[in-house]
Amino acid sequence: VQLVESGGGLVQPGSSLRLSCAASGFAFRENLMSWVRQAPGKARELVASIARAGGVPIYSDAVRGRFTIVRDNPNQLLHLDMNMLKPEDTAVYYCHAAFLSGGGDSWGQGTQVTVSS
Fold first, then answer.
1. Going by DSSP bridges, is the β-strand pair 111-115/105-107 parallel, antiparallel, or unpaired?
2. d(CA 102, CA 64)
3. What is the rounded distance in angstroms from the CA atom of residue 84 to the CA atom of residue 90?
């Protein structure tokens, strides 16, 4: 199982950014996929989750209306489209897979997003 994030960087407030997660080694389309972030000195926070194709995404209150989680099942990619970024969105963003059959989960290595003027 492998989850590889990309797309992080340093951006100004109000900017947009797309994060991507390339998944391999498991049945991507059958499992729950999420983005989780961790800011310095804080606990990990669920940002958004999406079930298999057709599932209704869920978002944290902090990002609802600004972020969109997208899954591309044929290419085994998970994206997070982030708009109207704020300094408080600064964190390491992790891709997470929860395996519905058999239990267990997997994490990516994380990608840093810094929002600063």
1. unpaired
2. 31
3. 12
